[in-house]
User: What shape does this take?
Amino acid sequence: MNTRILFVCTGNIARSQIAEGLVRTLAVPGVDVASAGSRPNPKGIHPFAVEVLRERGIDISGQRSKKIEDVPGEFDYVITLCDDAAQSCPILPARRARIYWSIPDPAAAAGDPQAQMAFFRDVRDDLERRLRQWLAEQHLLGDTR
Assistant: This one.
């Protein structure tokens, strides 16, 4: 049976999309990963989220913003990545664990495009560090590059 992971944030345009893309690359085969938002943004994935993963050789341009109801089934792990979603989301059952990581929203970054990209890179790097550690603890880390 596959391990299923769901990442949840409010708009499903940056943090959860980045996490989904990273897990698709880092996890062992047999890990099924999805992301969703408590209030998904109809504009879709933030272009800087796509770009910062492209810098890592990961293509998330085909992913889309989804509502929680759009990702049916049970999940082994539900990982909430923002304060708003943690407070406003319905309680999503997880077969093994519900996890909460407070990650700042890079889509809310102010400043010029270079400053915004730097913030997106910081969020990407934080998520990658956390995911590598967590996946290793769960014996789900496949990529060790």
